Amino acid sequence: MLRTLRRMKILVIGSGGVGSAFASIARHRDYFSSLVLTDIDAARAQTAAERMGDARITSAMLDASDSAAMAAFAREHDCDVIMNAADPRFVPQTFDAAFEAGATYVDMAMSLSRPHPDRPHEEVGVALGEYQWERAAEWEARGQLAIVGMGVEPGLSDVFARYAADHLFSSIDELGVRDGANLVIEGYDFAPTFSIWTTIEECLNPPVVFEKARGWFTTAPFSEPEVFDFPEGIGPLECVNVEHEEVLLMPRWIDAGRVTFKYGLGDEFIDVLKTLHKLGLDKVEKVTVRGQEISPRDVVAASLPDPAFLGEKMSGKTCAGTWVKGTGTDGKPREVYLYHVSDNEDTMARDGAQAVVWQTAINPVIALELVATGAWTGAGVLGPEAFDAVPFLDLLKGEYNSPWGMEERIPS
C-alpha cells in the first residue's frame, strides 16, 4: 500500500550542486520531517548535510546505479519521496527504485535518448523519457505519482506554458523555451555553470522539435539560430536548438502548433562542444587507456571544476523562460515571455548555492510542498503541465520570495 503524504520523509539521490541546493532551500520549509542526502561518495553527502545545520537533514552512502539498494533504503527508512538529483544516466534505476518502494518520485531530467540509427537529424530514435512513458500505466494503475522534468528547464518553463494556456491565450501557435545568461566565472578560461556531462548530452544530441501537423522530429545540433533579447540586463543572445524535455512534455498536455527549446550557448561554448565531439571526447562508451577502462566524457567532467563550488567566483544572472505566441483571450494576436531570473549574488547570500543550480533546485522543493499540502495530486507519470500553475507561481513569488516576470512583446 502507498503511504499517505503528511510531513514528508524525503530521500535525495545525489549530493552534488543541485542535490545540496535542494536541501539548502528546503531547510527553510516545514513540510518534511526528514531529508536524507545520499551519494556514492559518502563524505560528499555528509559534508553537504552537515553544512545545512538542520537536525532533519542527514546523510548516507547510496549508489544511484543500484536500484535494489535504493528501494531497500527507502523502505527501511519509510521514505515517502525519492528525489532524483543524480545525473540522467541514473534515471531508470532511481525511477524503478521509487516504484518498488511505493514512493512518490521526482526528477529534473528524464531518461536519456538515443539518436535514430539511420536518420538522426530527421527522425526521433529513442526519445527523452521513453523509458518512463513506457511504464506510466503501471504507475497509474497503482495510484502512484511520478513528477518528471521538475527542475527549471524542464520544470518551471512547463509551469509557465500551463499558465499561459489557462489564463493568457485562447489558442497557442508556438511555445518556445528560451534560456540565456550573462554569468562570468573569475579565474577560468572555460568553466561550465552546470554539469558538463549533462550539457554535452543535451547539446550534441539531435535537438527535437514538435509541430502539430508533423509530430516530433529532429534537426542538426545548434540549428535555427536566432537572437533573443533577455530581460533584466542580460540582453540579446544568439540561441540555438538543443535537445530538451519540454518539447516532449508540453504537447502531451497543451495544444500548441509548435514547441521548441533554444539555449543561448555563445560561440565559444559551441566551439568547445564541437571540438570535444570531433575528438571523440563526448563519448560515454569506455576506451582502454594503459589497461584502464575509461569513459572519455567522464575524463572531461573530472578535468573541469565542479559547478557546485564556483559560486564565490561567479557573478551575473541567468534567465529561464517560455516565449508564447498565439491568440489572446481577447481574440487578438499576442506574444509574451514568461520568465524567472536568478542573480548569483542573491542565491549565494540566501543558500550558499550558485545561481544555476539554485534556480534548478527551487522548483522541486515547491512541487513537493504542493504535493504535501494536497494542492497537486495525481497518479501516473506526469509532467509539470499536468498540474495547476497558479499555486506554484504564487508560492514562488510569495513565500519563496523569488519573483517571476512577464513581458508583453510585439506580435511578429
Q: What gap, in angstroms, lies between the N and C termini? A: 53 Å
How many domains, in number, for the residues?
2
- In what range is the share of β-strand residues? 25-35%
CATH class of the largest domain: Alpha Beta
Helix/strand structural class = alpha/beta
Q: CATH architecture of the largest domain, please?
A: 2-Layer Sandwich
Percent helix, as a range, is 25-40%
**CATH topology (fold) name of the largest domain:** Dihydrodipicolinate Reductase, domain 2
| Low-pLDDT stretches | none
Average pLDDT works out at 94
Radius of gyration: 20 Å
Assigned CATH superfamily of the largest domain = Dihydrodipicolinate Reductase, domain 2
Per DSSP E runs of 2 or more residues, the count of β-strands stands at 20
The global form is globular
Any descriptors?
single chain, 412 residues, alpha/beta, Rossmann fold, Dihydrodipicolinate Reductase, domain 2, 2 domains, 9-stranded mixed sheet, 7-stranded parallel sheet, 20 strands, globular
